[in-house]
Amino acid sequence: MAEKGVRLEVPSPGQDRLRLGRVGIIAAVGFVIGMVWPRLAGVHLVPSAPVEDQSPAVAPPAPSASAANKPSAPPAAKAAQDEVKTKKKQELDQRIHVHGEEVVTSCQDSDGRRHDHCDAIKFGEVARPRIRALAECEAAQDEKGTLSIGFDVDFDKKQITDITSGKSTTLSGRAVRELLKCAKKEFDDAPLDGVEHQYSSYSVYFLADLLVPGHKEKKGEAETAALGDVTQANGSATVSWNVALIRDAPKDGNKIARLLRGTRVVVSGRKGDWYRVKYDAKGNEGWVYKAAIGM
Questions:
Q1: Tens-digit pLDDT profile for residues 143-166
Q2: Which end of the chain is more exposed for a tag (fewer CB within 10 A), N or C?
Q3: Predicted pLDDT at 222
Q4: Does 289 lie in the same domain as 251?
Q5: Residue 279 lies in a domain
Q6: In this structure, are 144 and 251 located in the same domain?
Q7: CATH code for the domain in which residue 243 is found
Q8: Is the dihedral of CA 37, 41, 42, 44 positive or negative?
Q9: Domain that holds residue 208
Q10: Domain check: are 152 and 258 in the same one?
C-alpha cells in the first residue's frame, strides 16, 4: 500500500495580507460595538466621576418665627448707660429752665467799633445745654431764683472772654459767684465755629430760673410774679430791641414813650418781668419789659 505524502501549502504574500485585513476589520467592528452599545443601552460599566456643578445646593436653615421677629437688643451695659443719661437730662431740665431767645446787648467789629444794630447770632444752641448743666454745680443745689447770665463772645479769638451776671439776677451773691465759676469751666471748650455772625465780638445775655427739683410752674404763677411788689434796683441799661415801649405801669399800662435801640436808661426799680427806668434828660420814668433792655 502506497503511503500518501504530506502536502504543505505556503500562502503567497497577497493571500497573507488579505487574511490580516479581515482580522483588523473584525477587531475594529468589535471595538466600536463595545463603545457604542453601552451608551445606547444606558448601561454604566464603571461609576461616573462626580461633577462639582451637579452637586445639590444646601440652603441655610430658615430662621424661626420668634427669632425673625425678635429685635436685636443692645448690650445690658449700654442700655443702663442710656437710661442714666436720659434720667440725668430730665433732672437738669427740671432744675434749670432757660427762657426764650438770647438777647444781644452790644457788638463790635474787628477794629473795636461798636455798632447800634447787631445781628441775632444763634449762640443759644451752644449755650443752653451748658447753662442747664449748671444744675450740677454745688452752689445750685439749695438755691431758687433767677440767674441773668451774660457772655462776651469773641469770634476772632474763638473763645468766650468773660461771663458775668446781669441785673435781673435774684440769687444770693455767694451763689452767683460760685455759679459763674462753674460756668467758666463749663464754657471753657464751647465750640464757636458753627455760630453764624457778622461782627467780631458780642455781649449776649440769657435768663434762667433755678427751680426746686420736680417743680412745675402753675398756670398764672409767672403772671402773679410779674405783678408782685416793686423792688429797688440801681444801675443803667441799653435798649437792645429796635423799638422799646415805655408804659406808665407794668404789662397793661398806657404807652407813654418809644425808645430806639442804643438808648441808655437808668434803672430804679423792678416788678416781676418789668423794670422802672428814667428814660430822658428830664427824669421822666416809665416801665419797660426786661428783654427790651437786655435784662
A1: 888 888 999 999 999 999 999 998
A2: N
A3: 45
A4: yes
A5: yes
A6: no
A7: 2.30.30.40
A8: negative
A9: 82-216
A10: no
What pLDDT, in 10s, does the model give residues 175-232? 999 999 999 999 999 999 889 999 999 998 888 888 865 444 444 444 444 445 777 7
Compute the distance between CA of residue 242 and CA of residue 154 in angstroms, rounded to an integer. Answer: 23
Residue at 69 is within a domain: no
**Contact predicate 155/194, CB 8 Å:** no
- Which pTM does this prediction carry? 0.49
Ramachandran quadrant class, 227 (left: phi over 0; alpha: psi -120 to 50; beta: rest): alpha
Are the C-beta atoms of 149 and 155 separated by less than 8 Å? no
Residues 6+ away with beta carbon under 8 Å from 79: 73
Please name the residues in contact with 162: beta carbons below 8 A apart, sequence gap of 6 or more: 151, 152
* Whole-number pLDDT of residue 99: 77
Asked whether 167 and 112 are in contact (CB, 8 A), the reply is no
Per the structure, the count of domains in the chain is 2
Q: Tell whether 22 is covered by a domain.
A: no
Name the residue with cell 454604566: 44
In 10 A of CB 54, how many CB atoms? 6
Residue 23 lies in a domain: no
Same domain, 114 and 179: yes
Residues 240, 295 within the same domain: yes
Q: Which three cell numbers stand for residue 223?
A: 403772671
| CB atoms near residue 176 (< 10 Å) | 20
